[in-house]
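Q: Predict the bound structure with adenosine-5'-triphosphate.
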Amino acid sequence: MTQIFKKTDKQVDQARLLASASKHILSYGGSRSAKTFGICRAMVIRAAKTRSRHIALRLKFNHAKTSLFLDTFPKLFSLCFPGLEVRENRSDWYYSLPNGSEIWIGGLDEKERVEKILGKEYSTIFFNECSQIPYSSVTMALTRLAERSGLKTKAYYDCNPPTKRHWTYPLFIRGLDPQTWEPRDDADNYASIRMNPTDNLDNIDPDYIQMLEQLPEKDRLRFLQGEFTDESEGSIYHAFRREDHVISITRSPRHPIVVGMDFNVNPMTAVICQLYDDSLYVIDEIYLENSNTHEMTQVLKQKYGPGWTVIPDATGKALKTSAAGISDHEILKQGGYQIPFVRNPFRADRYNCVNGLLEKKRIIVDPKCPKLIRDLEQVSYKEGTNLPETKEKHLTHISDALGYVAHWAYPLYDYSSGDDVMGVKR
Ligand SMILES: Nc1ncnc2c1ncn2[C@@H]1O[C@H](COP(=O)(O)OP(=O)(O)OP(=O)(O)O)[C@@H](O)[C@H]1O
Ligand SMILES: [Mg+2]
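A: Predicted complex:
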């Protein structure tokens, strides 16, 4: 018997929202609630209207291929568009429709394909499972949402809701800028819909709901009720444990020193690191109160000599914390240090990077670094935001210094090619 396609009631609401005037539309909620299916269907309808190009992106290409190209789309074509002659291209991974429209499938983890994909322009970009995608990659991909096909360009997003600190929450639920948590002027351009598995009972196994009901509370809220969750505690470096990460380290004579630096004047801070065995060893710290970059350069020279690489806060390229009139980066270079081209990662990516390395015990801190250890234990979020609490003026700076060097050495998501995700050069 041929199955007849029927939208769930929630999918009717979703379809209306996807076709509304908003440009950015998030479908969030529990698992198996028909979010992805509804979005892919809207993409096909848009593609069928006029010759145009569309793309569904995931963090990992392999996941995009198995879940979207080999599962959701084939099922969707046969159920909702049985008469449509769709051709598959399995070398570049796109479908073409009889009117010449293309629907591409991509991952953000493959440098060559990312370059190819981002060489084109699209009328729709769909960020599937966007809780896994860094916001920096989203904004980069959105520069390609520029096809002049006659369709209004649209960005669709879906995810199981992560914590309230994730960029999706301020952006879509609170109408705030995910970097600053300030209100956005264009908040009207963002819309969202919650969809839960109980809205998709016609198409999933009833046992599945029972299974979700047995989950621990936090997971049940997320996967059954589709709620953004609160982080249990406010600590930013939640993966840090003194007993696991503080170990005496002898400086390796075979490896160079790499210094992470933050240019705050009080305190001016640096972490002295060595990188080997896929890990980051913090062998020492420099913490100077009421200081400046000249003094920091002198202290660094006295203790460790010149010639090493420094990974500073990238804003120091233009910043002058010293009276001399030259930039902080210039002072360091004149002092005999090398500064590679650096770009500050988004704050949340930097925190995630440090926590990820801590979880795998790839950051080890010598007990000679009490200020860094204090920061890793005490730096917390300002309540209800993803911004650090800055009431205590001495905190946050030295852990920022660690974050700069950690993210430079082992950037999030692509540890091998030396490039950030989406081909952004470090
Ligand atoms: N209208 C429909 N008719 C028939 N099957 C449907 C319909 N909508 C969704 N489905 C099916 O329901 C299942 C769940 O849908 P989908 O994958 O879109 O859920 P999801 O909300 O994206 O889930 P997850 O959070 O796990 O990614 C899939 O097998 C999908 O093919
Ligand atoms: Mg899905």
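A: The chain has two domains: 9-223, 242-420.
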